[in-house]
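User:
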Amino acid sequence: MMHVRRLDWLKLLALTLAMTLGLSACGHGGRITGTATYRERIALPPNAVFEARLEDVSRADAPAQVVNSVTIAGPGNPPISFTIPFTGKEIDRRHHYSVSGSIRVDDRLVMATDRASPVITQGMPNAVTLLLKAVPQTPPPGQDEVEKHVGPPLPDRFIGAHGLNLPATYEGILPCGDCPGTRWHLNLMPDQTFYLKMEYLERDGYLEDSGRWYIKTPENRLILSGRRGTATEGFAITGDTLGKLDAEGRPITAANLNFTLKRADDFTWFDVTNPMRGTFEPSREGGTFTDCLSGHSYPVAGNIQLLSAAAGGGAITLDVRARIIKPGGRPEAMLMPLEIVELHPGEGCEQHRAAAPLTETYWRLIELAGDPVRVMENRREPHIILHADGNRFAATMGCNQMGGTYKVVGDAITFSEVRSTLMACMGPVSELEARFKRWLSRTATWRLDGQTLTITAQDGATALFEAVYFD
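Assistant: Predicted structure:
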């Protein structure tokens, strides 16, 4: 009996001692020890700086809070040993803590951890081994990637050459092979993103999708490039309706069956949930997620820690399941991450589309003679299209329609036989139209850089165009 009681006493003493040591670690502080390494076979330059951070990662809806950090200048080759001290006042035993690491060269992030390394509380150790991974680098303009020119912001509503007044909601019930029909809700946004909700009638089930839309010229076909099998969805644009096309791009005709979506009187937003691949970049405000498919950047709304923990202080490309929302009537859509599906450290979006062809591309004018060109509310956006058939061109600055012929010889370009409709245009659109006509008569050379077209006049005045609505 005494032997059993002694064992019980020893167990109680051991438990008390463990609890005391645990409380002491948090009450009087301690330290995190660790090493950091990476798999890339490179030597760090002398100006490299390594940083390890002890972070409170308890809140799922906010960025990690840094408890303490340590930096090592010129850390040399891995493994890199480090120690992060902490005090008892800084640690709450109910919270979760993690260690992340990064390497910067001239303030440029080159390596970072892409996963959490829990420590201290909840039975976690006070020692870690960090694996750093290369962060994709953006080359300077003129090297591997052409500088991206961004025009003035688009207005809330405008009309493209395709005749769509954007943003727009299209609705309708389309035939279904094994059901009574599918109810479509399609939102087309000015920045060429689309959001789709398709509900099956008289049975459970629906499909939500998002992605990029474009207009295929000269057929003037609307194409949806989505993630859930809508990549081949095409529609013919006729006034306020979209007519469904078959896989060969021909109108679908069937007796007593309706294959059209009609524009709703009012634009109506709806949330969608999607699997998405994109690049998350943390910031003081929380961070942004840039969708690889559409190129659209979404502010992250809630559950930020899910992405920031994976990013480890830097940018990371990953697959997520997420919901695209507009909380509280905000003017811009936001992204609510739901779960991480797969990480792609060291990779980029690789969504850069091929260089736009000179002909049959919708070229939006964003700058004329050094002045930004604004798209005006409820008007057509200034643009030009160079048709391959007969070397004809079509253009507008938002009021009158212009056309004529053009000639390209090497890097030289000239426009001739320019004619225009004769509507009375007032204000800024009239001034822009007059300037564009004068510039058009003096054009001399052209240069194509990826998705940017620069046409220069004889006096050196340039017009800068960006490619949109092309396949």
